[in-house]
Protein 1
Amino acid sequence: RILIIDFGSQVTQLIARRVREAGVYSEIVPFQSAESAFHDMKPKAVILSGGPASTTEMGSPRAPKAIYDAGIPVLGICYGEQTMCAELGGAVEAGNHREFGRAYIEVKEKSPLFEGVWDIGTRHQVWMSHGDRVTALPEGFRVIATSEGAPFAAIADEARRFYAVQFHPEVVHTPDGARLLRNFVHGIAGCAGDWTMASFREDAKARIRAQVGDGKVICGLSGGVDSAVAAVLIHEAIGDQLTCIFVDHGLMRMNEAEQVVSLFRNHYNIPLVHVDAADTFIDALEGETDPEVKRKTIGRLFIEVFEAEAKKIGGAQFLAQGTLYPDVIESVSFTGGPSVTIKSHHNVGGLPERMNMALVEPLRELFKDEVRALGRELGLPEAFVGRHPFPGPGLAIRCPGGITRAKLDILRQADAIYLDEIRKAGLYDAIWQAFAVLLPVQTVGVMGDGRTYEYVCALRAVTSIDGMTADFYHYDMEFLSRAATRIINEVKGINRVVYDVTSKPPGTIEWE
Ligand code: XMP
């Protein structure tokens, strides 16, 4: 086990992720509670994260002294290097040596940290992000690599097995970083590397049991991967103490609601309340054209319907959510405890406060691809696990200019044909998200010998890593032509198809 002490870097979770990828279990604790966590956990090694503070300021955070006296390896990253130096008798200088972004370091000495990765005298790309820098080393340390802006880019006290780097090995812009971290946890710390998603599953179940005891838990299913994985995991842990509530707002894609219900009821045998609230949602949305009002209406109704169902079930003290790490920016506040900010798009963000229930969030530490891996581990069907992201407000925001049941029907059919063609062409997994949009515009066409006056359907497909930026997918024209022809022939109400070639920015992925 590895203990990661968080000094508030935006990328601390990536350290944990790299350690997991090396097959080693790790836990992140904020620096304020590091001392007790260290004594409880008895880790085989400690990693100190980066952070926004400056060791030259009064009251800036430090790692507990005990970690340096325990005879275990310690790795400091960025601020972690600086605090390590400040604590062990070196010196750190503030400002004026800022290095942000790509930098090159030169390896000066052989070290187990570089074993099999970097040789003496070679230069390598790393990612830097620091204002302060170390100017004098504590006793016992030697410089093992330098960069132009950081003469102490990597340092080591091999006897005590203390290592520190000014750059960020956890980010992908340090191409060899993952291998350096692997060297630290395997070679230096001696961890076996046999931790897997199967171990995560067992650990997570134990944590859920410990948190929940014999209490009752309710979990909202959205039809997406995250809430499904959370629900299946929790059900494995506590069985029928869990009840799932699926608020069906009537804005799902073709057959999707049925699939969710059948998967949970028939395949997993998990208690599920299926609330068919389509009329409530669609009646409230009818005639509404403002996208933000649509979102707010859907969010508010969702909470109301969910709350009413939860009351009927009665007696639940816990609310389970499939929150992932990217949904949570956990920043360490230097005055109080860690504070949590939820990113936007969290449609049901108000639910926990409103219902005054404790949260069960077993996926909080995971990234999307790790949740998918866990989903596979739990036996969720591949088609479910690999699904494109789908927005909480569903088709309502893919039907600009006011929704009606008839328009939703048309959109659902066009979308199903489009996705079918994408799957047939083997393109589904190469695309981050693909969907049809029904425009509130009718145009003239000719079919057979008759004039038509029907809706325009826009097709969208993007590639993306995280949904923050995106490029439109570059289909070949044959594919587009095939999809368009099928949609126009098979869907009554559409006589024209266009393809959206906007990237994000300046566009967004959804049209509303
Ligand atoms: P945009 O359109 O902002 O979308 O580029 C980025 C990602 O977020 C999804 N999205 C939403 N998800 N509620 C959600 O749960 C929303 O209101 C919402 N709006 C957009 C979108 O599908 C894409 O994956």
Note: The first strand starts at residue 2 and ends at 6.
Protein 2
Amino acid sequence: MGTLIMKFGGKSVGTTDALAQVVSIILNEHEHWKRLLLVVSALEGVTDALIEATHLAKLSNRRGFRRIIATQRARHLALVDQLPLNPTTRNALQADLDRLLFDMLDILQAVGENPSDELMADVTDRVTSVGERLAARIVAALLRQNNLRGVALDATDIIVTDNVYGNAQPNMPLTRERITNNVLPMLDRDIVPVITGFIGATKTGQPTTLGRGGSDYTASILGICAETDAVWIWTDVDGLMSADPREVHEAQTIAHLSYEEAAELAYFGARILHPRTIAPLQEQQIPLWIKNVFKPQQAGTHIDHASANPNTLKAVTSIQGLGLRAARSGPLSEISRLVDDTLFAVTGSHADVMISSQSSTQSFVCFVIPTSAGPDAIHSAQQALEEALNEHPDMQTWQVHPVSIITVIGAMLDSLAQHTASILQVLEGTRILALAQGPSHCSLSVVVNPQDAQDALLHIHQLILKAGERKK
Ligand code: ASP
Ligand code: MG
């Protein structure tokens, strides 16, 4: 067979057991595919820790950031100690990791000595990019130990991006050129590149990151540039699910989704997949699979262009968003601009204003913050918005409050009124703040108060299960 890209997430590279699984999966697929490319994330929790270290450096908290780096160093070296490596490989690997960690400490030290109020997203990216570099070296060493020609590659040399630190966009023509010149020839020599997920670099070589959870996106960027036949994302759950299993116990793995459905699901909060992953794959019709590292024989979730059965509802998600309300009506352009500017300053991504509505005396605007902006983004965004509104005397009538956006995903939701009717029926009694039909044809969102979200989620999920049973 042709070319396959496999991406391994933070949980699948974090422990010796998980790494043993990863190696056996790679060895197995190496038998089946002519060319193999791998993408790895940082070990679970490392990116969070490095962001925190940068934050402490900015506050000149030298002890704080040193402690974090010491902990990460100990963790990585202990992991390497436990891996089945011969002494020479082990020593070389540990020296390699140590050098990366010391270089990073230098950067943090410099920040600690010259603290500033600036966001310093560029420094955060230089520091966080180290997490993926460490992981790629560990996986590559394991492959060499198993007689594969594993080579760790830093995506800073491969993926060229703009300079929106923290949420960079790739420059596809330049990236494609580098992959054609530098990576594809390696594949022809039976080398298995282990490429760092999440990171890239500007034209001038400054490291950037693609947004939290960005390794999935790395796999799809590489997928279209290397013209792969498939992309497999390995994670620690069985695939994309009908709801977040932490919130809905009966959640089930979804066997198949169309590209549109998967994109909507990721956008509206399924944390398994970076929201920007799907678009490039869809453009080139490259199929995507999401599989569980611990159960490799299971099929997982398959995503491709095949149109979905219009009679099924696939999934329901709930994400936090922010709603703005004002006791007046009139043009919304000013408030939209303020929201967008503030959000961009805080999260590096543009506001996705998803719903706005007005009555004769009231206005309501509601937007989501992509999961790629990181887990704290919603709080920082709310704070920043409140401050921004206060600074504009004519905007002080706007009140910001958290909302929950419940989104149902299913094929042709926009043209099958019976689905909309049954969704609204199970929400009987819930206060609906706004309602929106996604332009993608396969999503319907209702905005509710956060305290109503859990019930709404459960009721809609029951509807999904019932619809599934009817089909059987
Ligand atoms: N390590 C990065 C993060 O935690 C990227 C990823 O995991 O995909 O966001
Ligand atoms: Mg992820």
Note: The chain is about 45% helix and 20% strand.
Protein 3
Amino acid sequence: MSLGKTHPSEAVSPCAESRSVIDPDTYFDHNQPPSNLEWAHTATQAFLQHQPANQRVVLITSGGTTVPLENNTVRFVDNFSQGTRGSCSAEQFLAMGYAVIFLYREKSLQPFNRHYSDSTKGLLSYLELSPEGEVRVKPEWADRVKGDLRLYQQYVEGGKLLMINFTTLSDYLFLLREVSLLLAHLGPLAMFYLAAAVSDFFIPSHIMSEHKIQSGNGDLTLRMNQVPKFLGPLVKNWAPECFIVSFKLETDPLLLGPKAKYALKKYGHQIVIANMLNTRKFQVWLFTRESDDAFLIQITKEQLDAGRDIEQDLVEELSKRHLQLVENTKLDV
Ligand code: PMT
């Protein structure tokens, strides 16, 4: 990959033999945990202890991970995701009675906040000064803000919504493993909804440039290692009894179905939700191991423009299937 930047020799990436995919466990030995890992562990433990028996819990991952090019990071490669899917789904899962752990990329969209994060509008466009000089919400936004604020407070104060943030790939993977291991004991009551856009390539920190890559030597050529797929250890080792939903994002329609099916076969989890970058807001396909045909969920462009979220239908369908699994597991015992 070339970013069209110049580089010092130390930034030239790993030699050919280090390009093979590393083992997921080795990844954790060679990378730094995030500063909020301990907090996340304690907060998740407390959150789960607070839940009543038989409470269904969902871990939603949302937003894109970054991979730094320097240990003292000035530049990084980002993964596309605004966080709409995750934040909107979190609201729907809460409405359906789930307890939600929301693992999200810092500054990406968050539940109940997502309508006010449009960078083209900014906070000030929702506010105005009253004749007395007081700051107040514009009347046309008041009902929506009141509703979102009420729900947000209700869920956070009621212990139904826990938010944990990440920025880099490494933050994400450490946090995902930590929370997964804590959720595992819930078995089928726990759902994983892996909507985050996770980097596929990275530079291991021990071979990364320590300081800002200097310009002046011509083009910059980067060679990045492949990130091991963490769905494997998640499904097999970290949370083997849980209900796991992964996402598959493609831009080439010919690849979408085959790759979703391949993921199901390879990792053996319950559902892959396939979506295309350009149509993701109004079309998604659910793939399961039980059927060769995908289950299509779609809304019309008109419904989308009128403010309907496809996540409403998606979460309803998933919740139904999740409940089925929980019920079947009870019958098996
Ligand atoms: O946030 P929005 O703007 O609303 O967009 C939503 C979305 C398009 C980002 C979302 O719907 C989506 O598709 N998310 C998954 C994107 C992605 O990473 O797809 P992938 O095909 O690269 O990965 C497939 C699966 O493998 C993912 O569930 C991912 O968690 C997992 N993975 C990926 C890389 C990696 N190293 N290890 C993994 O386990």
Note: Residues 310-332 form the longest helix (23 residues).
